[in-house]
Amino acid sequence: MTRDLMAVVFALCAFASPALAADTLRMGELLGDWQGTGSFTSGTDEPGRIRCKITLRATARGTNVVEGRCATSEGSDVFGLEVFEGEAGQITAENRTSEPGNLPAALVGTLEPDLLTLKGEGIAALELRRVGDDLALSIISGQADRPGRMDVQLVRAAP
After folding, report:
1. pLDDT at 76 > cutoff 90
2. What DSSP assignment string belongs to 68-115?
3. Under a CB-based contact definition with an 8 Å cutoff, are residues 139 and 123 in contact?
4. Do 24 and 16 touch, CB atoms closer than 8 A?
5. pLDDT per residue as tens digits for the range 78-96
């Protein structure tokens, strides 16, 4: 479960639409480097700590890329997603890592004021909320045989 959760952390930070309402998360505001810590639970195990470093950047063709690394005491995982904005606030993300690990091939979701929600194979809910200048991220497993949850507070990394 830990790798499933780590692999999706980055997806939360990558999605925002400049065409939506003023209080909607916007990609341009999120570009750059982010880092943070949080906790995760997996099944009946004791909660553990997780650390993440994430970079968000725009591409020349109008998509966005999020790349990063998350680590727990059990190990670490790197990730990369390319994010596409569709009609009416629909967001899709495709896995762009050569070894995808536990990351779903695709995630889909929508943007609403102050909230991004994504879902994918094995992911019941992935939510990103702006909290002041920080980002609060929550991921809930959608696998009945591997329940789990992760909560991470991300702050903009110092230049």
Report:
1. no
2. EEEEETTEEEEEEEEEEE-GGGEEEEEE--SS-TT--SEEEEEEETTE
3. yes
4. yes
5. 888 888 877 777 888 888 8
CB atoms within 10 A of CB 37: 12
Residue extents of the structural domains in the chain: 2-156
Which fold is adopted by the domain 2-156?
Answer: Lipocalin (2.40.128)
Measured between alpha carbons, how far is 115 from 100 in angstroms, rounded to an integer?
A: 26
DSSP character for 130? E
Distances in Å between the alpha carbon of 125 and those of 15, 74, 157? Answer: 14, 23, 26
Note if the pTM is more than 0.90: no
The angle formed by the CA atoms of residues 153, 50 and 43, to the nearest 5 degrees, is: 110
